[in-house]
Write a structure and sequence with these properties.
Blueprint (H helix, E strand, L loop, with lengths): L3 E8 L3 H12 L4 E5 L6 H4 L2 H18 L15 H23 L7 E3 L2 E3 L4 E4 L4 E9 L9 H4 L5 E2 L13 E5 L3 H12 L3 E6 L10 H12 L3 E4 L4 E5 L2 E6 L2 E5 L1 E4 L39 E3 L10 H17 L12 E4 L5 E5 L7 E6 L4 H5 L6 E7 L4 E8 L3 H13 L4 H5 L13 H10 L17
Parallel strand pairs: 1-2, 1-6, 2-3, 6-15, 7-14, 8-9, 8-14, 9-10
Antiparallel strand pairs: 4-5, 5-6, 11-12, 12-13, 16-17, 17-20, 18-19, 19-20
């Protein structure tokens, strides 16, 4: 007989796991939340919050250096690296402690501090020797940085997003390996804090941008702040206590290297083979995106662990879906997933929403390099591209790299969730001068291409400065 029994066992106490346990318990299930550390979520400890604290400091430094544009003279701007990192850790620890405090609110006996592995489809063995029998199991084990062996051999000279925030001071120079979301965000932040940054990537695309025009704008902006080496194979080595990077017959030495080559799911210690699930060549089961169920089993996989939509709000949603379905198993219920929505916190922000346009989609474009409000604020960079389905002009996707794209992206995502058309949005009020009104031209492009009714009582032109 098992030492512990429950209706739903959740492995991992991150964002997705907490949501799964809460929703399973809300639906009347007895639950166990199993985690070896209960240290807090990835977002609070090494992800969203500490990276945004670094980006906020970088923004302050960048703005201070560029006040001359407005006729405001500040003199020499200096960055106190230890102070930047001390504030980052102080606020990071406050966010993380808030998460840890929430563990105290769990009902007695729910939190189990241990590492779990499968011994059957719905049975677990803990590293303290105890066993668990559950009606269903939710895997929410998150992800960890991948450090290829040549970089691992560098020891403390190699950093990841799990370790970079523990530096005592900013390095004078930094190589960033990987131009994905994490690498690009931290590279720009470090560059704006005065670090000499070079970014290397074997691919030729930054942050997974799908639109060529948006990528060109992003690449152009980033190349003004750091050295970009795309489509190369960097080779690291240690030389005189520093990191040497060789590529294409060239080489350069750096104080540190940030390895941002991905965060694969934490599944290696789960012994998934014991579940009987069919696993792919990476040891991953097939996961239904609408139920989060693995095959037809009583096992569900959520958040970064399934690597489908590795962002916090999706992890929370997936936890809720899986928690309910784990209680209902085998009568699982598909959920309508929300419009996909990601933000890369470069400056300006990079946003991708919904679908990539196919050949039938209609596209509207808004150029922000000369947009009125963007120019007023000295942030006139980038563009927005909106996609709509023919023949109704319903908005289905967007790619934005422009000021306040993170805020405008929310408005566009909500419009897509509501099934609204370009004409519907043109019926809404646009204040002047704002960044939002810069979208009017893109919406009119779509209306003209579908074609779609443009409200007849509207001014067919645009206010000066839009």
């Amino acid at each position: 007989m098992a030492d512990l029994t429950c209706d739903v066992a959740v492995i991992g106490a991150g964002t997705a796991g907490l949501a799964a346990e809460r929703n399973a318990r809300k639906h009347g299930a007895s639950t166990l939340l199993i985690d070896p550390d209960f240290a807090g979520t990835t977002c609070a400890t090494v992800g969203c919050m500490p990276s945004k604290l670094l980006i906020a400091a970088a923004r302050a430094a960048h703005r201070a250096r560029n006040t001359d544009l407005f006729g405001v003279r500040t003199g020499e701007v200096t960055v106190d690296g230890p102070a930047v990192l001390a504030r980052l850790r102080q606020e990071r620890d406050r966010f993380a402690s808030g998460v840890r405090d929430s563990f105290d609110d769990l009902p007695e006996g729910v939190a189990v501090k241990a590492r779990a592995r499968f011994s059957g489809r719905n049975s677990l063995t803990l590293d303290d020797g105890r066993t668990v029998q559950a009606g269903a199991v939710v895997i929410a084990t998150g992800s960890s940085p991948m450090v290829p062996e040549p970089y691992a051999a560098l020891g403390d000279l190699a950093l990841t997003n799990d370790s970079i925030f523990e530096l005592d001071d900013l390095p004078e120079s930094l190589a960033v390996i990987g131009g994905g979301v994490i690498g690009l965000e931290l590279a720009q932040a470090m560059a704006r804090l005065g670090v000499a940054v070079s970014l290397f990537d074997m691919g030729d695309r930054l942050a997974g941008v799908r639109c060529n025009k948006v990528h060109d704008a992003l690449k152009g902006a980033m190349s003004q702040e750091m050295a970009l080496h795309l489509g190369v194979e960097p080779e690291p080595s240690e030389e005189d206590g520093r990191v040497r990077i060789d590529w294409d017959g060239r080489h350069q030495s750096f104080d540190r290297v940030l390895v941002a080559t991905g965060r694969p799911p934490n599944v290696s210690g789960l012994d998934l083979s014991a579940t009987g699930l069919a696993l792919d060549d990476k040891g991953m089961p097939d996961v239904d995106p609408d139920t989060l169920q693995c095959g037809d089993s009583p096992i569900f996989m959520v958040g970064d662990a399934n690597a489908a939509r590795p962002v916090l709000h999706e992890a929370s949603d997936e936890g809720g879906i899986a928690g309910r379905n784990a209680v209902a198993y085998p009568a699982v219920v598909p959920s309508r997933r929300k419009v996909s929505f990601t933000i890369t916190y470069t400056e300006p922000p990079l946003v991708m929403i919904g679908q990539d346009p196919d050949d039938s989609a209609k596209i509207g474009e808004a150029d922000y390099t000369n947009q009125g409000r963007a120019t007023v604020d000295g942030e006139n960079v980038g563009l927005a591209r909106l996609y709509a389905a023919a023949p109704d002009g319903r908005l289905i996707g967007a790619d934005l790299f422009c000021p306040s794209a993170d805020h405008m992206g929310h408005l566009l995502t909500w419009a897509m969730e509501a099934g609204q058309t370009a004409s519907d949005l043109l019926d809404r009020p646009f204040y002047h001068p704002t960044l939002e009104e810069g979208l009017k031209g893109a919406l009119r492009d779509i209306c003209g291409a579908v074609p779609l009714r443009v409200p007849g009582d509207q001014d067919p032109g645009l206010p000066p400065g839009v």
